[in-house]
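Progress note, project year one: complex with guanosine-5'-diphosphate.
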Amino acid sequence: MTTITILAGGVGGARFTRGLLAHLRTADPSASVTVVANTGDDLWLAGLRVCPDLDSIMYTLGGANDDERGWGRKGESERVSAELAAYGVGWPWFTLGDLDLGTHIARSAWLREGIPLSEATARLAARWNLGVSLLPATDDEVETIVTVASDDDGSPTKDMHFEEWWVRLRASRPALAFTQRNVAASLPAPGVLEAIAGADVVLFAPSNPVVSIGTVLGIPGIADAVRSTPAPVVGVSPIIGGGVVRGMADACLSAIGVETSALAVAQHYGARSLGGLIDGWLVDEVDVEAVALLEAGGIRSAARPLWFSSVEETGAIAAAALALADVGHSGG
Ligand code: GDP
Ligand code: CA
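Model obtained:
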């Protein structure tokens, strides 16, 4: 039985995993998949714990995602949000749909009883038949804070929650830094280190390298587990032809001094043989010239189309990532 562990953010991670599962259904039905999800975007809002990336993965794999909009529940309504806005509670620009609120209320109820996020996530996931084991990177509240240049109040910089920068400001104010509040004392959630150490292959979904994968890797112990796992570690580029595919990942990459290119992101992760994090990196066919450069630098590489144009095509991309890790065959 092949065991596969994926580090993932929200939408990119969810779509990639859905494709991988479609591929495995025929290629390797006994394979077992664990997704380690970013929790840096999580926040308390209107008294509720909201976990955007965990929920994107849960809804997408559970068949409940609004694929047209890209996030949230399909068939959603916003009656409760309108009531909250009338009371001035929450963020009017951060929509909480009525069905989605059910998830947040259930999760918050469990968290208030002292149940850890990983257990609350398992209880939510049990309803949806995801076909994966879904783990938060950490049970601790480690939120991504963005530092931007201040415009108004005289202080040189201003800190805000990632979601405020991303959703309200659409990443329009240049980020000076990303920090993970409370990260030093945080621990990987139960099962995370074991899932990385015990996998046959570890995959980096084509998720945001800074605020999704970077945040997961920032939890103490996780990057070391990736460096030391006996499994090959292969990533799929979230950057195609020097541009972001969907979203605004370039605004995050420039803040950490990494060029928006498939090559630069791979070099940012680094070759495991040289103390880095990845053994392989799949790039789009338009970035084929990166392949030889990566191979020369100790990262196995291949080029193929990387657009998630359908679930089947995404499955073929996932299969190519497994092939790069040399675990593309059934059984194992
Ligand atoms: P978020 O947490 O919802 O922002 O989602 P992720 O961090 O998991 O993924 C966002 C990233 O997915 C974006 O920055 C894109 O670069 C990447 N992405 C989205 N669609 C595609 C696609 O069709 N192909 C590839 N290769 N990457 C994609
Ligand atoms: Ca996210």
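The chain is about 35% helix and 20% strand.
The radius of gyration is 19 Å.
No further modelling is planned for this target in the current period.
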